Amino acid sequence: MDKLLLAVKILIAALVLILVVQNIVMVEVRFLTWSLRLPMAILLVVIYLLGMLTGKSLWTLIRRLRSDRSRRPG
To answer: Measured between alpha carbons, how far is 11 from 18 in angstroms, rounded to an integer?
Structure first.
């Protein structure tokens, strides 16, 4: 099982490396009056990390609401 997990980790690392190498082109990101130029690979990683953070926060909020609801007498 450990060898399988290691193989999956190596495969994911290789895919991420391929993604970075193939997406080094500079892109411009605009938001309201703010503008930023950065490599597309970095933009993808930032968006992915923001999505992870948002998903974790949302999941925590849902769990908290469910536990509050189950504690209410009724």
So the answer is: 11
* CA 32, chain centre distance (Å): 23
Could you tell me which residues come within 8 angstroms of residue 28 by beta carbon, excluding any fewer than 6 positions away?
35, 36, 37
Distance CA 31, CA 54 (A): 19
pLDDT tens digits for 55-73?
888 888 888 888 877 777 6
The answer to whether 20 and 37 are in contact (CB under 8 A) is no
Show the DSSP H helices in the chain as ranges.
2-22, 40-71
Expressed in angstroms, the distance from the first to the final Cα of the chain is: 46
